[in-house]
TrEMBL record:
Keywords: Flavoprotein, FMN, NAD, Oxidoreductase. InterPro entries: Flavodoxin_fold (IPR003680), Flavoprotein-like_sf (IPR029039), FMN-dep_NADH:Q_OxRdtase_AzoR1 (IPR050104), NADH:quinone_OxRdtase_FMN_depd (IPR023048). It is an enzyme of class 1 (oxidoreductase). Homodimer. The gene is azoR. Its EC number is 1.6.5.-, 1.7.1.17. This is FMN dependent NADH:quinone oxidoreductase. It comes from Marinomonas maritima. Coiled coil: none annotated.
Amino acid sequence: MKKILHIDSSVRRTDNSTASYNSISKEFGRYFIASWMNKNHQDTVTYRDLGLNPPEFISQEWIAAAFTPERQRGKEQTLILAQSDLYFEEVAQADVIVITAPMYNYGMPAVLKAWFDQMMRVGKTFTFDLARGDFPIEPVLSGKTLVLLTSSGEFGFGAGGVREHMNHLSPHIKELTKYLGVDQFYEIGSEYQEFADDRHAASVEKAKRNIESLVKQIG
Ligand SMILES: Cc1cc2nc3c(=O)[nH]c(=O)nc-3n(C[C@H](O)[C@H](O)[C@H](O)COP(=O)(O)O)c2cc1C
């Protein structure tokens, strides 16, 4: 029995009366989870919609609390880290993490970056030791699988594409997820949303087929 953590980050909903207003990345997330649960009835899903319930931004007080050893923290510092602790527990418990993300300004949505900022914690997600030389940071967690499901308005962000150099969405997330204990990283996305043409429809269909294949492969 596996534990799935499902994180959405588009600010768009999925229940708009005009279908084209609905989030595509969230739709991919739902499609993935439905396919997965169809195959693995016993698994459990923890769900967070960061778009509709954004994390708090970290602050100077947050950093001070995070770097204060747990036993020395006052009540206020413990409270400041409560959201971070909760997010961390959800990641620590998960076998499979599904993150859905729209491309905003060539990168991830601010709410998803805020979630990562809350998540990355010394002594929890990583250890820091200068005895390791120029690479003092090492992840603590391991053995997790991450599936990233994306949607973009333009196109050509993949390997060899005309906008590959402008893709600061998936390379950034892939880099960060090492610190969530991710050993297996998979990415599926659609492009062309802004063109609203056949290329977009074909891209969405292809992404859904790839989601089905991925669930067959790893589910
Ligand atoms: C604030 C904002 C910024 C965006 N920036 C980009 C961008 O830099 N590149 C791009 O290809 N599409 C961009 N788009 C288009 C979205 O990636 C596209 O609409 C995508 O489908 C959004 O994901 P969603 O359908 O899950 O909400 C942007 C959309 C918004 C709302």
